[in-house]
């Protein structure tokens, strides 16, 4: 077919096809653009309060908190410095172990202070209940576990908690000093859309 067309027709067609390809490429490879929050359906910022109990279970056949690493001095340090604990702790509505689960705290805490019992907390609350099922909040903070109330920043979120910022207040509800099991009450205040 191309052979039957005059030579310049072929050249013009080729030029048209190539220039439109270049235009399409320029569009798909655009690196950034300005948007209004409304264009992604983010309407009004709101403040949400979440209340739940965190069960840190180290004992028994089904622990939800397990030491995965330690330092050369962890055993002799009075703060257990360098111990790293991986958790998948249930979050429940009430303080009892069998209370309804609303989510899980998944991540790590680690002994990060040589002189006090103070933890680095780096974890996600993965929610499993109601409209928050599938949404998560990310916590990154310091936790001085023997203080009556500890505050940790909420540094982000996903799902209904996109753009989240806020803080979590932790209060020990119950601790068994012989096996380390603890129940911690959390009040979390989150700004999100
Ligand atoms: C610390 O103590 C535990 C339990 O006795 C032991 O299994 C572990 O090897 C010790 N770790 C170090 C770094 O000495
Ligand atoms: C949460 O979402 C998962 C996945 O979509 C679903 O399997 C589960 O049943 C939901 N849980 C509740 C309590 O709605
Ligand atoms: C605390 O832990 C010890 C050792 O596992 C256990 O025997 C005891 O019953 C626990 N105490 C409570 C109040 O659960």
UniProtKB/TrEMBL annotation:
Residues 1-26 form the signal peptide. The keyword Protein biosynthesis does not apply. It is found in: Secreted, Extracellular space, Apoplast. InterPro entries: Allene_oxi_cyc_Dirigent, Dirigent. The keyword Secreted applies. Its main location: secreted. Keywords: Apoplast, Secreted, Signal. GO terms for cellular component: apoplast. GO terms for biological process: phenylpropanoid biosynthetic process. Homodimer. Dirigent proteins impart stereoselectivity on the phenoxy radical-coupling reaction, yielding optically active lignans from two molecules of coniferyl alcohol in the biosynthesis of lignans, flavonolignans, and alkaloids and thus plays a central role in plant secondary metabolism. Belongs to the plant dirigent protein family. This is Dirigent protein.
